[in-house]
Write a structure and sequence with these properties.
The complex is a heterotrimer of chains A (about 140), B (about 50) and C (about 250).
Chain A (H helix, E strand, L loop, with lengths): L2 H32 L5 H6 L8 E7 L5 E2 L5 E7 L4 E7 L11 E8 L5 E9 L7 H10 L1
Parallel strand pairs in A: 4-6
Antiparallel strand pairs in A: 1-3, 1-5, 2-3, 3-4, 5-6
Chain B lengths: L1 H9 L4 H35 L1
Chain C lengths: L1 H14 L2 H33 L13 H28 L2 H32 L8 H22 L3 H15 L2 H11 L19 H33 L4 H7 L2
Classes of the chains: A alpha+beta (about 140), B mainly alpha (about 50), C mainly alpha (about 250).
């Protein structure tokens, strides 16, 4: 390669490294804020004001969903398999809301340790399969 | 096939979401192609007139 | 080895000379278009009508047959553009600058498609159109980088200078790609982790990912087709005062 081209190549590589470094700095500075939600363990440890709106997320614990018969209110437990958080919510749940499925809730933490949600979002996993296959896997387990 | 056609459009109530996406994809991709064809016509005119 | 390198280099330089490129690309353009339409229609027909429904999401998961390919293309077109930028800056190859410019609107279209279809998919499954999680936000930034590249291009009059500026910006912007790719692993997001990774088998049954594969190939072909159309326009636009262009169009 002729020297001029080599020089330009090195300059470009320097530009790329600089840009990667800058991005990395921004990303690591923002890192805490880049998480969409807190897990129950993270919430349990700290003192959060009742008026602050936060997002919490985790898995819906099996058998924990209690739906009210005469209203849209629902109560369920979110777990990260270490700690749990009880969620109260009144409203329409997304289609994918289910036991053992991921969920992200937005709301505030009450002083009694329960969470009052104003929005419930369902998180879905990266697995896709036909219903028959899903049944087979369930039987095996 | 024909009686299934409505099921196909409906997709358990989510058909609107799925078909909107398909229409959007086809629209954006055809706009890209059409724009290129139009531009070519314009360029040829420009070259011929110069 | 050096001989092989020199021969390939010479071949690339020749094929990239505007008149020669214009001649050989005219033969492949329509083939690219035909192939793209075949792959896309078979892939989408298979994905939408034949592939089984998902055990959890039902039929709405079929949006992934356009969402996933366009997200892949949005990112890989950017990497392609950065490669063009590198060649343009280091070797000053004229055609690579034109290629970079021709690819930008297509890459932006695919990124827009990924965002819009993702949003439409999010409403029935997650329960919201949009959420500021790391994956969605970083993809939106990619869309803005595309817009910035196109804007920068049109703000510089001298085309050679514009090529160079856009080339450097494309290298700078390249840093967003690993952030998008790894965002679902680094942070807690609403968006699910990747179904397809290089290290493990896909977490999707074969009868579902076979049509997806066709769609991805179809999207790549559509990109190649649109790129060739744009690039041919760009070539005759920039060389329109040259004799070879006049010979083709003025008889």
């Amino acid at each position: 390669m002729n020297p001029l081209r080599k020089q330009r190549l090195y300059a470009l590589i320097a530009v790329l490294i600089g840009s990667l470094l800058a991005t990395w700095l921004v990303v690591s500075a923002l890192s805490e804020n880049m998480n969409l939600f807190y897990s129950p363990s993270e919430i349990l440890g700290v003192d959060i004001d009742e008026n602050v709106i936060i997002r919490a997320g985790g898995m819906v614990k099996q058998g924990s969903i209690e739906k009210s018969k005469d209203s849209l209110s629902v109560r369920f437990t979110v777990t990260d398999y270490q700690n749990e958080l009880i969620i109260n919510y009144e409203g329409i749940l997304p289609d994918l809301f289910d036991e053992n499925a991921g969920v992200v809730v937005r709301g505030n933490l009450k002083t009694d340790g329960t969470f009052k949600a104003i929005e419930v979002l369902a998180k879905h996993d990266e697995n896709y399969m036909p219903p028959e296959v899903a049944k087979l896997i369930e039987v095996k387990e | 096939m024909l009686e299934n056609f409505n099921d196909l459009l409906y997709m358990d109530g989510n058909g609107l979401f799925v078909w909107f996406c398909m229409a959007f994809v086809i629209l954006v991709l055809s706009l890209n192609i059409l724009y290129a064809i139009k531009k070519k016509r314009k360029l040829i005119k420009l070259i011929r007139s110069s | 080895m050096i001989r092989v390198w020199n021969v390939t280099k010479r071949w690339f330089i020749e094929m990239g000379s505007p008149p020669l490129f214009y001649r050989w690309s005219s033969k492949i353009t329509s083939w690219l278009g035909i192939l793209a339409i075949i792959f896309l229609s078979v892939g989408l027909f298979w994905g939408l009508l034949i592939a089984p429904t998902d055990y959890k999401q039902g039929d709405v998961y079929r949006i992934l047959y356009v969402h996933v390919p366009s997200a892949i293309l949005g990112q890989s077109i950017f990497m392609f553009m950065a490669a063009c930028g590198l060649i343009n800056v280091v070797w000053r190859a004229k055609i690579s600058g034109m290629m970079l410019k021709s690819a930008a609107p297509i890459g932006m279209s695919f990124t827009l498609i990924a965002l819009v279809t993702g949003s439409v998919w999010g409403k029935p499954t997650w329960g919201t159109w949009w959420v500021w999680d790391a994956r969605l936000t970083s993809t939106l930034i990619l869309l803005f980088i595309y817009a910035a590249l196109i804007g920068l291009y049109s703000s510089i009059e001298d085309k050679t200078k514009a090529d160079r500026a856009v080339s450097i910006l494309s290298i700078v912007g390249l840093a967003i790609i690993p952030v998008i790719k790894k965002s679902v692993d680094w942070w807690q997001t609403l968006h699910q982790p990747s179904t397809f990774t290089l290290t493990s088998s896909p977490s999707m049954s074969p009868e579902m990912y076979q049509p997806l594969l066709l769609c991805v190939i179809g999207f790549y072909l559509i990109f190649a087709f649109a790129l060739t159309l744009n690039l041919r326009n760009e070539v005759i636009d920039r060389e329109r005062s040259k004799n070879w262009v006049k010979q083709i169009f003025v008889n």
